[in-house]
Design a protein that fits this description.
Elements: H1 3-25, H2 29-56, H3 59-77
Length: about 90
């Protein structure tokens, strides 16, 4: 095959590829809506899976028990309190 035929064949393939690209960009409005709903559904499914994992393994309770409670205990154990035994007997 001559170089000229190869160049023409390559140019024809390039034009066909460009035309296919133009057709792919022109989609029906319903297809766009379905694409948006598909992405929304995928995001909601991911959130649902995450929340189910937290529920199934009781991760919120473990977080409270191992992280939050020790912080609260440390804070409230350091608080100054008045001792009711040090008050005089005549005070109520």
């Amino acid at each position: 095959m001559s170089i000229r035929k190869k160049l023409l064949k390559a140019a024809l393939k390039e034009e066909i590829r460009k035309e296919r690209g133009k057709r792919a960009k022109r989609r029906c409005p319903g297809c766009r809506v379905l694409g948006v709903f598909g992405k929304l559904f995928a995001a909601l499914a991911a959130v649902y899976a995450l929340l189910f994992t937290v529920f199934f393994f009781d991760l919120d309770g473990k977080l409270l028990y191992y992280v939050v409670e020790p912080l609260l205990v440390k804070h409230y154990d350091k608080m100054e309190r008045r001792n009711p035994l040090d008050m005089p007997y005549d005070m109520k």
